[in-house]
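Putative LysR family transcriptional regulator
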Amino acid sequence: MVLRGRRVAGAPSFFSPGWDDGCVSSTRRLSQDHLRTMLAVYRSGSFHAAARHLGVSAPTVANHIHLVEDHFGVRMFERSADGTVPTVAAHEIAAQIATHLDEIDRLIAGDLRRSPTGGLMVSLGGPCEFVTEQLLPALAGDTVRLPRIAFEFGDSRRMLAELDAGRLDLAVVSGIRPTGAGVRAWPVARERFWLVAAPGLTDGTEPPAELDAAGLIAYDDHLPLLRRYWNTVFGVDPRFDPTIVLPDLVAMKAAALAGLGVTVLPSYLVHEEVRSGALVRLDRRRDPPSSTVFLAAGEPALAARPPLLRFAELLVDRITGYQENVTQ
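Structure:
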């Protein structure tokens, strides 16, 4: 990439006391803090999020970005309805400075020996239920090795869109295999789905068309979990309207426990209730419908930030290990 006719020389040059190769339009020399602010905006996708992360005011962030833009003579970010979008120049500069600033932060924090991800800030998105029930327990005992993590919750399609837009560093997705030359994906878990209800509500022997007599609890009007189960187990599409629509799996479980209907939920969310008898599996198939859960990351981000790759690999190891040790 060319800036004012001069190639961006690489991050070490940004810190050189006498660096001046003709592409600087500002008389004020950049500091590491200015570059760190630019990187925080780049990673978080927001001036306000960067300000919270750095512990400074939003006007300070805006001033630092102005100085960086003035220094290089190019715009770093564009504002859009979806937030702050990095320009080509921002992508190029972030790729060159990220590793160096992360390593400097680790050295200053004294984390170089004890934590391979020290000083790293990671934005990680995924389904709230999987993060709560599977990912977080899998990280128990790894406090020293963890970076600072900002979680975002949402469905798989939205998480992939956020990852693609650069607003997430890592995304946990289910039912969708992340594809594309710029995405790396690791399978980390197998999500199994059970048809469950409160004891006595139904014995599960009715034809699928009659199960709705007991009432059906769905995630939304498109019946994503119920449709997958009906297609796989019964070989038909569900042809009914749900009794209750709850856009939250934990709320769906609460409704089932209250005897308000039949539903389909991931086994990790209800296996304790099934084991205790609070819920009953209506179909004891040995091979229930299932989907693969992936951890996804952008290849450019992994290449530019080795600590991010190390953290992703740690997540893969811990989640897969946790899966092997829990009963589902």
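The CA atoms of residues 204 and 211 lie 8 Å apart.
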